## 1
Amino acid sequence: MRTEAVTWISHRGLCQHADENTRASFEAAVQAGFHYLETDLRASRDGHIVLSHDEVLHPDTTAQINVSNSSREALSQVKLNKGSPLLFFDEFFAQFHQQGHVLDIKPETAMQVIALLPRYKINLDKTIFLLWSDAHQKALLEVFPGANCFARENECRRAGFSILFAMPFLGGLKAGKIYSIIPSIAGRSLFREKIVNRYHRYGAGVLAYLPNTPEQAQMAIDANVQYILSNDDFNLIPR
């Protein structure tokens, strides 16, 4: 029986009617009731943090744009495919500071982004970071000691296979760390209480990664995951 509410994380905002990682997508996510907003951070050429999953953009109306080689002024002129401008972290932080944040710091400009983040009064109790290398994670923890970082992709894969084959002692699981699990592997659902409990026995947390349907989201809830990262609100299920 579930005793704690799951934390819903919006994956780059709700994008059914808005470009991802934009003011419109995040406003839609907040309106839908998401607790946390997940976004991708890159640095511009002139030292601004811009929210963009991709390093190379292909807007409909202009030639391709490399985010890290462009100035804030140039990036401010970009219109994405559904008409929204790019959003910068100072704008995002000013408007959405009351929500929790998941900050995916992309590797190409990770050190620049890490150096810029101390400008903001980041609430570490409501922020989870994702880094893509051990060196970048160490650099972040030097700036923000005690910051909560998701297990990286290779760590999640190792843990997942060890759990799936009932050998969690081989998974390198660490207490207090949050591991992502996908809906299924080779037709076998991972959103099961038996699976999630194996993480919990090691003191680890579990995030259900992008359930595709309301049924999968409900399975994740029933399995006692702590977090759901989702492209859809599924009306934030329990009814």
Note: The longest strand covers residues 36-43.
## 2
Amino acid sequence: MLGFRTRNPDRDRETDAARIQKLRQALFDVRSELEGEKVGLQGRYETASADAAFSQQAMEEGRGSPEISTRIDDLTTSLINYSRRIATLDRQSAFIGEMLVKLEGYPGGGEARRRQAAPREGSG
């Protein structure tokens, strides 16, 4: 009869915890990318919004050139596109948050985080 050997359960748990930690870190990295893109878009949105408001005011006061109406239309389109993209990023970020919560509840998920936070033997 052949003897079937399995790995040490402690080693399996460590391997699983390491994989979960890699996944957690990847999710944090993606969330950070999403936040960076959102911050950039919000800045451009605010700039375009202010520009559109001043352009509209100039047009209403008769100080604008004929091209100002086209500029306002272009800025309005940009604002709509920025808003849509920000909403998409918010949905993606919420999804990542849900994945992190699920990962925490996954067997070994909380353990991986605790191991990462715990000081290692011989250090300190």
Note: The radius of gyration is 26 Å.
